[in-house]
Write a structure and sequence with these properties.
mainly alpha
Length: about 100
């Protein structure tokens, strides 16, 4: 039993590390898109790129949180919902600060 919990914990740790990298990468891409870096001249930020980057930030937080809620003993389902709301707040804050 303890071996399974350790294995699940390791899986959640790996997913969390990957989620952290995804959040940093997508947030950086989001900031660059809003600031106009790499955007064609005489045009603003591309809406679908912003949507994609924002979705990446939310997924980078939500997937590890959902995995922790499902795989770890005593995991709570509300953790995933709270993480999704916090990730969405981060995206809105990034868009508000950089625009």
């Amino acid at each position: 039993m303890a071996q399974g919990v350790v294995t699940r914990g390791a899986l959640v740790a790996v997913l969390s590390a990957g989620g952290l990298l995804a959040v940093v990468g997508f947030a950086l891409a989001l900031v660059f898109e809003v600031q106009g870096f790499g955007v064609p001249r005489d045009s603003g930020p591309r809406t679908w790129h912003l949507v994609g980057y924002g979705t990446g930030v939310v997924a980078g937080v939500l997937v590890p949180a959902a995995a922790a809620g499902v795989l770890l003993p005593g995991g709570r389902r509300w953790v995933a919902g709270t993480a999704a709301v916090l990730a969405a707040a981060v995206v809105v804050a990034l868009l508000g600060v950089t625009s």
